[in-house]
Amino acid sequence: MEQNRVRIADIAEALGISTATVSNVIHGKTAKISDATVKRVEQELEKTGYIPNMAGILLARNNSRIIGVVMNDHVKYEGRVLEDGFVMSSLNALSREANEKGYAEFTTVYGQHQQLSKEWFADLDLVADCAADAAAAWQGPALVIFGQDDEAVNPAVSARVAELLNAETFDGAGAGHGYGFYSEDPALRLKVADAVANFFAANLK
Fold first, then answer.
1. Per-residue CA distances from 78 to 82, 83, 87, 184 (Å)
2. What pTM was estimated for this model as a whole?
3. Are 195 and 180 in contact (CB under 8 A)?
4. Strands 66-73 and 104-111
5. What is the tens place of the pLDDT at every residue in 133-178?
């Protein structure tokens, strides 16, 4: 099927014009193209059943308006991470903002080996190195949620990651490693949920 796909080059060759002209018509950049040429290109596109390469179009736009969400299926979720209250609240907030602002959202789940988790997060230098690499590749907005009273992940690690990513932070102190997501205090749970919702609202343009 892929081998039979009509390409821009095929359209251009059939009409005796440049591939740039065909591409400009496809993308609506017709200010400098005659109406007659635009019509010829559109007719040829319709006749050949041209299907654009969406990956190429999205790459050219430098903004796919697709949001990928990767969820950690930690053993504590017992295989039901998407049923977790905080996870559901966060995804609902993201979905609401994404829909309003023309984004598509895709979610996937991956597993975690718990025995590696505490050892990895205990090594401040290792985490900082990884965060530095991420910061070099990612220049967009970020939010780091942690707790100053976290007994599992050193707060200094979270603070360092936030610094390297130039991220906004939310301190869910008062719930230990729960960061407020799983606190018995409904007011604290609401605060962390609002922090996530506000982050999405402010950064999805």
1. 11, 10, 14, 20
2. 0.55
3. no
4. parallel
5. 666 666 778 888 887 887 777 788 788 878 878 888 888 777 676 6
